[in-house]
Amino acid sequence: MLRLLRLLLLLLLLPPPGSPEPPGLAPLSPAAPPQAPDLLYADGLRAYAAGAWAPAVALLREALRSRAALGRARRDCGALCAAEPGAALPAVPLDAPGRDSGPGRAQGAWERLLLRAALRRAECLTQCGARRLGPGGAARLRVGSALRDAFRRREPYNYLQRAYYQLKKLDLAAAAAHTFFVANPTHLQMREDMAKYRRMSRVRPQSFRDLETPPHWAAYDEGLELLGRQEAGLALPRLEEALQEILAQMESCRAGCEGPEEQQSEEEEEGAGSQGGLYEIIAGKELGGSGCHREERHKLNGSRVLSAGHWIRVLQCRQRCVGDTATRPGRSFPVPDFLPSLLRQLHKAHAQVGNLSQAMENVLSVLLFYPEDETAKKVLNEYQTQLGEPRPGLGPREDIQRFILRSLGEKRHLYYAMEHLGASFKDPDPWTPAAVIPEALREKLREDQEKRPWDHEPPQPKPLTHWKDVLLLEGVTLTHDARQLNGSERVVLDGLLTPAECGVLLQLAKDATEAGARSGYRGRRSPHSPHERFEGLTVLKAAQLAHAGAVGSQGAKLLLEVSERVRTLTQAYFSPERPLHLSFTQLVCRSAIEGEQDQRMDLSHPVHADNCVLDPDTGECWREPPAYTYRDYSGLLYLNDDFHGGDLFFTEPNALTVTAQVRPRCGRLVAFSSGGENPHGVWAVTRGRRCALALWHTWAPEHREQEWAEAKELLKEPEEEEEEEEEEEEMPSRDPSPEPPSRRLQRVQDKTGKLPRVREEL
Question: Which tens digits make up the pLDDT trace of 666-715?
Fold first, then answer.
């Protein structure tokens, strides 16, 4: 009955038919207290499954609103209770105890103070939550880990985009789809949906906006872009906004570390069945003094242990907020040194507009992170020389000082817990001073940092002094440079493959096609043209087929070797000082369908850019999903020329004016930067079969092609494996680091024995 009443109430809140929808996903009832997000989400999914699109939209939006309101309440209550007298963390015990005290007594005193602070803070948070969220406070609205993960993955927006589409609200459907896709860039179905929305004339370009990404990313990206265009005056407000939003986002994240959901996750991990969070447990206890009974003293000791363990988890969570805030949606790793790098950009911008005092404040703030940074010291001396006389009171930014002092205090507690309580802690910051780390832990931590996160990866040779050296060693000739191709960062190289090698790879493509190894397009026709067939083969798929005996191992090994050869040349020519990593490799063949080439007017591959969405009308190229924004350089290595059509061509940003054209031939590599400066397409293949190796490279190591390492491992000969085992026996001190859990590669076959599907690439 309660759910039925909730559904009827939300139906009344919907706008009448024909009325304009408010922009975005605005709250339905801002003044109403938030309801349980899990119940709203479950009801929304039921309505969605029943095809009740309007109620589904209302319930899913209300679930999002409730979740956001809960986060705001936590943040505000956390800030209020942090200033509560008696709720501050006690100081870490000194390493050198006094004459009448030992390590055990000091540790016990610290735990008692910690319990007292936890009780005071728990009481404050409980009272504040009840005032903001109604009876029961945050405990009434908490959700399980599965549902938290669903919200973190933005799954409500996946359902919302479909429901909006059914309601003919295409702009809102596109916004919801874009919001989901930003956090799930590998979701193939949503990629197809996004492409469909972009082709719809009724969907406005401004509808493709992210409704969930924290505001600091928009300000940060815009500020860096303006600074890159030498518009420091316009960049400064956006960079300052980004800094304040980053600090605010960290506060919001830190507040979430103390709520009932955090406690619930701890209980789930430990198998506890308690219905209340830790705060509710310890805040409800009446802990007596010296006159308490033995059972009460036992409860006191249990609460003390529970409190210490809880606060360690809270501090671990708070420290993780630094990395969470610096991680873009849909990415696996944070931007390294996020705050210090932003401060460096700020001092440059202030200096460019003549604000030397503010520039010095930001340089001094950088030196708080890295006191021995020689570049920052040099810049600081230059600013002081330009200012002339000393400015009293000029120092680092107060907000950064507070951030560092608080962070270092928490790190001291965590390292103390590591040393004396057996806790674990992975420091997210490279700037932590060595003095904060206990001497007994420094050697172990240094060894852990020196370990590589995984062993098998494409080799990264040291860059040679000039790209000509690499071409000479590889026997490759430069055919056309960027000037001859009428563009920037373009090159044509010949001689990467011999005719025999081209033949081996062509046979590999043919054998793989006969084995049914198309790359998941679910059809024989190309996704870009109905007049051609399209087959694609990745390095891992080739290795799997070779391992199964469906294709020859020689071709699969050559495919792996050639992809690394192309990466080496591309890095040497375009990026000798910065390593490039293979991001995706695919052997692609396009075949003309006989009888369907008369009066043909389309292209084999329409004009596009590889890391941004090209808008020919404005000449802009938007570096955002559904484009593969992490791609930096592209390469096409051709295998044959016995076909009609199929030439690669470059255009102006209008996608109409052709600036250069390249005819494929065996062993010819066309390499170019992946951005909007190099729009390109492929003329129609009107007869025969055109095959090429398509490769994309990235500067971001987190986006390197993990399938490459898996394929290399799979193609190892038994003799090579035996040699490695012998080497390991001879070197017992070698300690290969395990592959990180987040980077585990899929197995060659699943439990049913079927080969897994290869991911699709548009």
Answer: 999 999 999 999 999 999 999 999 999 999 999 988 888 888 888 988 88
Decide if 690 is catalytic.
Answer: yes
Single-letter residue type at 307: S
Tokens of 546: 């070779």
Measure the CA–CA gap between 282 and 299, rounded to whole angstroms.
10
Alpha-carbon span 570 to 493, nearest angstrom: 10
Please, which contacts does 727-735 make with residues 24 or more away whose CB atoms are closer than 8 Å? 735/451
In the chain, % helix, strand, coil (3-state, to 5) comes to 50, 10, 40
The catalytic position among 67, 238, 313, 690 is 690
Residue 611 corresponds to which tokens in the numbers above? 């890391």
Task: Report the predicted TM-score, pTM, of the whole model to 2 decimal places.
Answer: 0.53
Q: Give the count of beta carbons closer than 10 Å to the beta carbon of residue 624.
A: 17
Amino acid in the structure at residue 242: A
CA angle at residue 58 from 57 to 61, to 5 degrees? 80
Asked if the peptide bond before residue 626 counts as cis, ω within 30 degrees of 0, the response is: yes
The secondary structure of 686-732 as a DSSP string is: EEEEEEEEEEEEES-GGGS-HHHHHHHHHT--HHHHHHHHHHHHH-T
Q: How many residues does the chain have?
A: 762
C-alpha to C-alpha distance for 674 and 696, rounded to whole angstroms? 8
Label each residue of 517-558 as H, E or C.
CCCCCCCCECCCCCCEEEEEEEHHHHHHHHHCCCCCHHHHHH
Amino acid at 621: C
User: What is the pLDDT at residue 257?
Assistant: 78
- Here the tokens at position 140 are 């009434």
Distance CA 104, CA 127 (A): 35
CA-based nearest residue to 361, from 338, 379, 373, 385: 379
Contacts of 704 (CB under 8 A, 6+ apart): 457, 458, 581, 582, 583, 698
Distance between CA atoms of 302 and 374, rounded to whole angstroms?
A: 50
For the segment 526-543, the average pLDDT, to the nearest whole number, is 84
Q: In angstroms, rounded to a whole number, what is the distance separating the alpha carbons of residues 477 and 496?
A: 9
For residue 308, what pLDDT band results from cuts at 50, 70 and 90?
low
Using alpha carbons, select from 480, 686, 678 the residue that is nearest to residue 598: 686
Confidence band of 77 (pLDDT split at 50, 70, 90): confident
Query: By CB neighbour count within 10 A (0-12 exposed, 13-18 middle, 19+ buried), where does 720 fall?
Result: exposed
